[in-house]
Input
Amino acid sequence: MSSLASLDGLESKPAPAVSGTRLAVRRFLRNRLAVVGLGVVVFFVLFCFVGPLVYETDQTHTLLQQVNQSPSGAHWLGTDAVGHDELGRLMYGGKVSLIVGLSAGVLATVIGTLWGAAAGYAGGWIDAVMMRVVDAGIAIPALFILLVVSAITTPDLTGLVLILGLISWLVPSRLVRAETLTLKNRDFVLTLRAIGGGHGRAIVRHILPNSVSTVIVAATFQIADAILLVAYVSYLGLGVQPPSTDWGGMLSTGMTAAYSGYWWLIVPPGLAIILVVWAFNAIGDGLRDAFDVRGRA
Amino acid sequence: MSAVRRPAAPVAGEHILDLDDLGVEFTTETGTVRAVRGVSLHVAPGETLALVGESGSGKSTVALAAMGLLSGNARATGRAVVDGTDIVGADEERLSGLRGSTVSMVFQEPATALDPLSRVGKQIAEVIRNHRRISAADAAERAVELLRRVGIPEPEQRARSYPFQLSGGQRQRVVIAMAIANEPALLIADEPTTALDVTVQAEILDLLRRLAAETGTGVLLVTHNMGVVADFADRVAVMYQGALVETGSVEDVLLRPSHDYTKRLLSAVPRLSVAEADGPGERPAPEPDAAAAGEPAVELKDVSVVFGRGKHAVHALKGVSFAVHPGETLGLVGESGSGKSTASRVALGLIGPTAGSVTLFGADLAATRARARRALRAGIGVVLQDPVASLDPRMTVGECVAEPLRVHRRRLSRREREALVADVLDRVRLPREMARRAPRELSGGQRQRVSLARALVLEPRLLVADEPTSALDVSVQEAVLEVIRELQEELGFACLFVSHDLAVVQQFARRVVVMRAGRAEEQGLTSATLLHPETDYTRRLLAAVPVPDPVVQRGRRAERLATLAAGRTEEQG
Amino acid sequence: MSTYSFLIRRVLQALAVVLLVTVVVFCLLHALPGGPARGILGPQATASQIAAFNHEQGLDKPLPVQYLYFLNQLVHGDLGMSYTLNEPVSQLITERLPKTLLLTVLSAVIGLLFAVPLGVWQAVRRNKPADYVITTLSFIAYSTPVYFLGLILVLVFSQVLPWFPAQAPQGNSVADILAQPQGLVLPVVAGAATMVAVFSRYMRSATLENLTEDYVRTARAGGTRPRAILTRHVFRNSLTPVVAMLGYYVPVLFGGALVVEQLFNYPGMGLLFWTAAQSSDYPVLLGCVLVISIATVTGTLLADILQRVIDPRVKAGRS
Output
């Protein structure tokens, strides 16, 4: 027994006990772009949800006495073609863009995760068939589907989230499938299977908890893509109905006005979209490096 | 001839490599790590210095520092003089001029050391053309010549192969060809045979020895394997925690170590017992097999496993039969691709046999229903090779160990479960408090003991251990094997022990099955089979294992080479 | 695996995917309230008019029958008649597909010509100011809706600075369009921007990953200079996964073409599709989606084959 104790000291000591989560947080905070991205997202959430309480504007009535005014002390970002204050409208529209984008991104990730995990864990011909379905979905460009849908119907907000979620779950499903495939052959899962542990336990206790970081990273990128997709929706004729609006809607209605020199009708919503989508991408990038998982480049 | 070619080095005297107070620091996320401290050593032309130590001792860092190949977060201090040039602080242009011509390196992992998209001939030619102004055609010709010199058959064709088309041993020969392309004065070999099977290891060591002797090249051999040291080195330097503890001739260090650490290290190395050199010897009469009388814990009967179908089918196992009886350890040995891991997975029920039958605790697995099969599996414990992958990083040690209880004894209260976990942690000699720790905070040896605790928490009748110690240092390996052995005596489980290491199996297993290309080549009592093997294959396998005694190993090598030469003449005759 | 059996297998897989696409599209079109008839004949149409239209177009038969009928026609190259343009859909598509391919291939090639060197350069200058600037710029390019980017391009390079026309070249053939190259500049730039953003990122991370590979160390140990390691070894190894990604990117390229064509009034399939959507011209919509999907699947197949050409391991069936 004495030999055991003495030999123990010979082995090199493992990494100091810094928890995985704390290490990830530290890595994330060191990524300056990601931290800026986080700041941008926080700013826009406050701007859209708290802003209207501070900066109250009328976004329902047509105010013909003040259409297309350029930025001034009264209207910091000017007014649009029906006289709505543009800054207030940016908050108002941003709420819709963020809610729809977030929900659609999360929905897509949930569907993708379930599909990908099922395919990866089942393996064999079930996996093959399920992944051919994903291939087929990817083969139809999302914008084409959205345009076909717009030819058929004009959905409400919930419908919009469903449609966007249903066309963008394909990429996360591939990621999660790949992750599941490696996890199910990891030694700790094999050991569990060998001593008679069930599939349920393998999935719930091992595979899902270990894919969490992959899923979180995928979700962040998915939200970025969804907000971008929401910006296309009005352009393609599927947008929310006036007087409600979103950034994409503001942008596409402002496009004709841009040729008349009303730059304040397109630059603010355009920048808002770019900033928020950029921010979510930067966060995703930082999270991916912090968790050290594979995801898109 | 290269010794003549080089001008007398003004600073280093007769030494081709001179390390003087070398230190290396790494800046990491968790702080600065001093990997190497005050290392001074030298290599003379034509001699081989072995730098030995366990993982984390800093031996590979020394080798990389001598090449100027340290990673970006490393900082070297002191001096590392190669042929008159101090590598520490030399600029990249200067280093590029030295590397591959004056000093070159052979790496551990032949699978990844070569550019996968370039033909091997081209990669060798590139090294030649880095240092000599010769035409591409001439360089290609030289590359073929080098491939011939490192013993690759049909070098003209092989030069046009991509790395993936070559075996691991052949790839390592290509890396060696690149290293000797410009007849360097110093060759640094960092664990050159660790990733290879033992028969291939012997061939590569023979090759390196021949090449070094032919050109008078000095060799710095970095290794953890004392057998390799005994086989190859003239002098030995022992490293421990970043510093040198002992330097001396190979006989002195291996046979008469002076430092405590070296003594402990050498005593932990499993030694292959070898039969008296003269004659085939008498096979001892098989001792009465008491255990065989009882019902085997697991029995494979004529099991075949085929992966894939049609042209791509791989026959992983071909008619393998063996049984493990209660209280005994059966060793399953073989080289990579021999099917030993597949066989253990069949025994575990993770892979279904294509033909043949598996009987677990007297029940035919194919004939039992799912529910009954599950109950049977409560009697199995498993320890797999990789200490990192074996434990779920998202669970605590306690949760990992308790998992079999949650599967098979769901009625237990939390307190009862915790008590059992604490109990089994005691048994594998880990502190009870460790239950609350995360696996990543543990060392490799501790993790493997956690795996063992998990395997034993249900008091199994069969333990399947698939290379449980091959990722561990020898000292830790000894401790883990000791625990398994003591617990087996106490609990009386049967143990199926898979390993590539004949010395470990010889010490640890009562009976042994030698696997080769999916077949059981030979099986019997370890004391008989591994001392007086019946088949040529086992004999060759045993002869290729280097023993950590330079005197004995010299004799074994001569004998092995004589046998090989005799075999060759026979073939030709 | 031989090249033939690989090709046969991949083509069969591609066919399966296209078949699935037809099912998806077919279901999508029949999920609409009132069916295609309501869309064509307008809200004033009487029930009998709708019934007559449905009978005439075979829309009163059960769905599976309609689907088989549709498939049968498809095999014979018949995609039906456009409701609004009174021309066979197949003819409309054959006329416009080459022009869309011209736009997308041009965007892709130009995009890659910028993206690949940019990514390599970023990897070499990792975490230096240049890397941060380009990373930020590519995220911005990725985050900009193509139509907004197109609008800005027109405002800046056509309105403020009268360098390029705001309207794409018109014409019936690819040659007609190529005859007016200055009109192609803005559409191609708009189409290539996202591509540059995405692929410079891919190339950057692939190069970074390869720079840490063992073979780089081996080459350094052989005295190969850093620049030569980059050009002879790392570049080719990094390009392989990027080529594989190219296959997945084909649908995004076509999606971009849809917007670009509408924005610049470029007479390709995207614009045809767009107008068809406005007028609920279902046969045209269906035909376009189908052709675009086949083009996507073909693009993926080509990327696979390209990968086999540059990576000997893929050819040997291991990777």
